[in-house]
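User: I'm putting together a teaching handout on how sequence relates to shape, and I'd like one worked example. Could you take ABC transporter permease from Marseilla massiliensis, show the sequence you're using, and then write out its predicted structure as tokens right after it?

Assistant: Happy to. First the sequence, then the structure tokens directly below it.
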Amino acid sequence: METTDISYLSMAVGLLLMALPVYFFHRLGARLIQSTAIATVRMVVQLFLIGLYLRYLFEWNSPLVNFAWVLIMVLVATFTAARRTRLRLRTIALPLFSGLLATAVVVGLYFLVLVLRLDHPFDARYFVPIMGILMGNMLSVNVIALNTYYDGLQREHHLYYYLLGNGATHLEAITPFARQAVEKSFAPCIANMAVLGIVSLPGTMIGQILGGSAPGIAIKYQMMITAITFSASMLSLMLTLRLADSRSFDVYGRLRNVRRKD
């Protein structure tokens, strides 16, 4: 069974649905119309360009080119996270880049080699989409967690110094803030995972079914993707926090100025 194509005219008809939220933004006086329009145009242009690029990426199917694309994704994710968290690049760029890249490679290859048992794990058909799925999930979790972690340290720095003053190690003193960051960033992930298949049908599974895969196969892939994205998000966050620690505190354990002024 082949996937039904969508004509450009039909796509234009579908995009007309974007007028519905814009209408209510206008009625409610929400200042989101311009940003929605810009985001919609960017989404359309970027997806068309990436579709064109992926066409040639799949034709070339070069491990070096595929890995270079992953490096670009990690770099973009790093700067995106730094911008959303307003953390200084010298504080978070290298730890975040390293955490995202190492986790994506380790968890991605674990899935491709040990679970799918592919002879060629760098095959563009599998390698690029899996890395993209991992990167998107890791980015969203890291942004929420890093914001929560550093906001907590800055807002409740007295607690941090109180713990240090009462004999706690540096690791013990930052643990309450790390725990809060993990709870806040992973609570939505756990809630979504708990209702998969009942309340919500995930896009990956629906996409596979629409693409002609048997429902049973699509469900297996969705289970595995949920597991690897959840695990990768945690591992990348822990690596990022660990690597950012020496850049966030001085030799005396005092929190540095990690936020940008803008």
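A couple of points you could highlight for students: The chain is about 80% helix and 0% strand. The radius of gyration is 21 Å.
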